[in-house]
Amino acid sequence: MTTTTVLIKNGVVIDTEPEPVVLGRADVRIEGGAITEVGPGLPDVPGAEVIDATGRIVLPGFVDTHRHTWQAAIRALLPDTTIQGYMARVLGEIAPNYRPQDMYAGNLAGALECLDAGVTTLLDWTHAQFSPAHTDASVKALRDSGIRAVFGYNYAGGPEGQASETRRVREQLFDGPGLVTIALAALGPEIGGEDRALEEWRLARELGLPVTVHMSTASGLAFLESNGLLDTPTTFVHALEYTDEEFKRIAAAGGTVSLAPVDEMNLALGYPPTGRARAAGIPTGLGADTVICSPGDMFSLMRTIHLLERGRPDGAGLGFTTRDALRMATIEGAQVLGMEESIGSLRPGKQADLVLLRTDRLGMAAAHDPIGAVVLNADTNSVDTVLVAGRVVKRDGQLLHHDLSAVLASLRESADAVVRP
C-alpha cells in the first residue's frame, strides 16, 4: 500500500453508491491508499502527487466477477464455438499442456490486460491447477501484476489431493493481508457431481472461504438447499435457467450472480437473466469469462448487457438503463465478491481503485451524459490513468511497472507451447 497523498484535480467525477450519479467537476483526495475526500476545490496538500484530470471522467475501477485469466494465451482460439467445443478443445486438450510457467504467463498478461482496460479487481476462476507449482505460479502472477484479485481456486490434480492441497494453498499462500485473496471455485454439483460438491462446500466452510460455482439448474439449487450448504456465501455463475421463485430463494440465502453476457450468447448457453436476478434483489455482476470467444474489457460487457436487457421481447427490459450497467460493473460487482465495504465506489474510507477516462477524442467528446458515454461510447483506448489502492499502475495511456515487451514475448512462447495440432 502506498503511504503518499494523491490529489486528483478537476475531473468530471462519477460515483456509484448507492446508485450511479454524476457529481460534476470535483477532486478526489487519497491518503495511504484510501479515498479520504471527494468534492469541488479541495485544498492542495503539501508534498501530494497531483494528477490533473482536466478533460477526464473519474470513476471507480471496474470489477470483473468471473474470468479464466490463464487463457490469455489462447485468445480468439474458438471465436464461433459452442460450450461443447470449448469443453472438448480447451479443457480436454489444451489445459493439460499447461506448465507452471504457462500459468504465470497467462495470469500476468491477463491481469495486465484488465488493468490496461480499467478493471482494477477480478475474480480469477482457475481450473488448470494440476500441481502445487501451477498454483504457486498463478498466485505469483496475480501479485506481480499489481491488480486486486480473488483467486478462485479449483484443484485439478485428482480427487485424492483436493482437501490437502486446498488447505495448503489457503494456509501457505494466503496467510496475511494483501491485494490478492482466495475463494473456492467449485465444480460440483452440476459439473463435478454431488460428492465433490459436499467436499468443496465443507472445505469452504472449514477454511472460511466464499464459493464461486458454475450453476444454472433447479436440481443443483435444490441439492445445495437440502444439504444446508447455502449458509456459505455462494456466487452462481451464469444462473441461466432459474425461475423467478428460485431467484428469490437464492436472494434469501444471500447468494449472488455473475453473468458473462458475450459468452452466454456466443456459446449458446442461454439469454442472460439480468433483470430477473436483480429484481429478486440479488447482487449481479459482469465477467469476461474466457477470451477464447469473448472480449476482455468491461466496456464491451456493459454494452452487451445493456443491449440484451433492453432488447427483451415486448419491452420487458426497457427499465434497464446505462446506470444499471455501470452499477453492475462497479459497486454491484464488488457486492458479488463480498468486497463492497472496500471497493466499488468513491465513499471515503474505501480503497482508491480508480479509473480516469479521456474525453478529448472524437468518440467521447461533447457527451451530455457522462454515464451514458462511459457505457455506450468509451473503449479501452479511453483509459488514461488507473490506480489500485492509491498506486498509479497506468498513466497517460501507458501501463507502468512492467516490461510489456517481455510479458508479450513470454505469452507468445506459451501460446506456441500449449496449442498443439
Commentary on this structure:
The protein has helices at residues 83-94, 100-116, 132-145, 162-173, 194-207, 218-226, 244-252, 261-266, 274-279, 298-310, 322-329, 331-336, 370-376, 404-418; strands at residues 5-15, 21-31, 34-39, 49-52, 56-60, 62-67, 119-129, 148-155, 180-186, 211-215, 234-238, 256-259, 284-286, 354-358, 383-388, 391-395, 398-399. The chain is an alpha/beta fold and 421 residues long. The protein has 2 domains: 5-60 and 344-398, Urease, subunit C, domain 1 (Roll); 62-336, TIM Barrel, CATH 3.20.20.140. The strands form 2 sheets. Strands 1, 2, 3, 4, 5, 14, 15, 16 and 17 form a 9-stranded mixed beta sheet that branches. β7, α3 and β8 form a beta-alpha-beta unit. The radius of gyration is 21 Å and the shape is globular.
Q: Keywords, please?
A:
421 residues, alpha/beta, nine-stranded mixed beta sheet
